[in-house]
Design brief:
Strand order of the largest sheet: 1-2-3-5-4
Number of strands: 5
Distance between the termini: 19 Å
Structural class: mainly beta
Largest sheet: 5 strands, antiparallel
Helix content: 10-25%
Number of helices: 1
Strand content: 25-35%
Mean pLDDT: 83
Low-confidence stretches: none
Radius of gyration: 14 Å
Shape: globular
């Protein structure tokens, strides 16, 4: 079995808004697909829909972002777009 190699995510993929919303964005590219991932995080609560939607137009290109399931009480929301997956 071949396992994917963890991608390097550094601070260039991260932005912090003045009100404390942490935004991470990455793109994974393979010969068959491209995966866009946006992660929104707060220290004190889960980010609201409005906070996340504000960023989608800036980050997500060419698709509809699907939210990944999270654990109860989590303060992080993750959205993904899979382009060209076969």
């Amino acid at each position: 079995m071949r396992l994917p190699i963890n991608r390097k995510v550094d601070e260039s993929h991260h932005a912090m808004t003045p009100d404390g919303l942490s935004v991470w964005y990455t793109i994974q590219v393979s010969p068959h697909a491209r995966i866009q991932e946006a992660i929104f995080e707060r220290a004190d609560r889960m980010p609201s829909d409005e906070e996340c939607v504000r960023w989608f137009g800036l980050l997500i290109v060419g698709g509809h972002a699907n939210e990944a399931p999270s654990f109860p009480g989590a303060t992080t929301r993750r959205f993904e777009v899979f382009d060209g997956a076969s």
